[in-house]
């Protein structure tokens, strides 16, 4: 099986637009984050190879309802979603991960057109290559141009390629999995404006957004009984140890999750169990921790529909339609690119 697929077919191109810049920005970001008060680290660094696999395990947890709710919407409505954008399309996906759910949309598009150009972007090149080869194996009509990079480097590279202007197709951009929730309100606005600038009027952006709900449902989704999410969070310290010569004792940091009602967001933290000093040889840095002091590693904002249409309006889109799962836990929002004035 593996060997048959090990040679990428000519329908596959993989770009590394940020190559070289990445490890040095990891070092700089970790230094800045650990010197901040309160301490904080950017969530994009969760997704090394192990982190990406742990996230896939999270998606299978009973408590993490988001992935199943999304799957339900796509199973029921992929065709409707694809048909909302007129004419032949290409699909760009920001943060494609395993691209398992994307199959529903790829299949729906391939019902209406013989060939499809799929452009996935993911920070993990291992996930990107694995999922792309799998998709190419299943769908002979598919061609893939993949970008291994963080969102902003990839958007810049995509802009330069003028990838949306070729072949006279409309673009559907995908931003699934509640990824929008990992940005602060200002960050999500600058990100969406950046996405808007590579689209043309009437192109679409499908945004998956988790909805506000009781803390008793939200908190377990980010703090599961098996401890997979805890492992995912602490893997960031393992990565720092490996790549930056750190000596974090992972057992001395606890995964902690709260629902911050005021901001409408889940917060994930790593809390120091006791006073301790950590050395990062690669950064020539020593960091002290008070007992209970935390590193803030992630926000996951939860939305209501007013916030989503405001977000669309603020960033050059309009919210054309929203789909829900049967329990109304999660939403898919089709933003269409408004004409630029
Ligand atoms: N995009 C995911 C979300 O907000 C990421 C995620 C899931 C996550 N579980 C996590 C991030 C736990 C940090 C910690 O749902």
Number of helices: 11
**Overall average residue pLDDT:** 93
Strand % is 25-35%
The small molecules bound here are: tryptophan
Overall spatial form = globular
In whole angstroms, the N-to-C terminal distance is 52 Å
User: How do the strands of the widest beta sheet line up side by side?
Assistant: 1-5-4-3-6-7-14-13
Question: What is the chain-wise order of helices and strands?
Answer: HEHEHHEHEHEHEHEHHEEEEEHEE
The CATH topology of the domain at 57-213 and 304-337 is what?
Answer: Rossmann fold
Total strand segments: 14
By secondary-structure content and strand pairing, the structural class works out as: alpha/beta
- The CATH architecture of the domain at 57-213 and 304-337 can be named as 3-Layer(aba) Sandwich
């Amino acid at each position: 099986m593996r060997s048959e697929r090990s040679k990428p077919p000519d329908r596959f191109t993989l770009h590394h637009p940020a190559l070289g810049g990445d490890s040095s920005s990891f070092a700089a970001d970790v230094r800045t984050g650990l010197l901040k008060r309160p301490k904080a680290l950017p969530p994009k660094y969760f997704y090394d190879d192990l982190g990406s696999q742990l996230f896939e395990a999270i998606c299978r947890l009973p408590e993490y309802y988001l992935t199943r709710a999304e799957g339900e919407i796509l199973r029921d409505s992929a065709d409707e979603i694809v048909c909302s954008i007129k004419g032949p399309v290409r699909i760009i996906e920001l943060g494609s991960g395993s691209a398992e759910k994307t199959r529903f949309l790829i299949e729906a598009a391939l019902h209406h057109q013989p060939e499809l150009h799929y452009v996935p972007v993911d920070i993990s090149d291992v996930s990107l290559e694995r999922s792309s080869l799998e998709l190419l194996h299943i769908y002979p009509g598919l061609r893939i141009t993949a970008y291994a990079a963080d969102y902003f480097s990839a958007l810049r590279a995509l802009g330069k390629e003028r990838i949306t202007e070729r072949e006279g197709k409309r673009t559907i951009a995908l931003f699934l999995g509640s990824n929008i929730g990992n940005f602060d309100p200002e960050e999500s606005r600058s990100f969406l404006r950046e996405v808007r600038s590579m689209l043309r009027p009437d192109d679409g952006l499908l945004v998956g957004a988790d909805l506000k709900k009781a803390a008793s449902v939200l908190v377990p989704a980010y703090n599961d009984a098996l401890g997979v999410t805890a492992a995912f969070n602490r893997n960031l310290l393992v990565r720092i140890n490996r790549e930056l010569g750190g000596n974090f004792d992972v057992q001395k940091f606890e995964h902690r999750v709260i629902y911050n009602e005021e901001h409408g967001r889940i917060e994930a933290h790593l809390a120091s169990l006791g006073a301790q000093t950590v050395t990062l040889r690669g950064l020539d840095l020593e960091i002290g921790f008070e007992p209970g002091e935390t590193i803030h590693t992630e926000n996951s904002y939860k939305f209501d529909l007013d916030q989503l249409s405001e977000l669309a309006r603020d960033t050059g889109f309009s919210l054309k339609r929203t789909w829900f799962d049967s329990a109304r836990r999660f939403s898919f929002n089709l933003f269409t690119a408004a004409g630029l004035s």
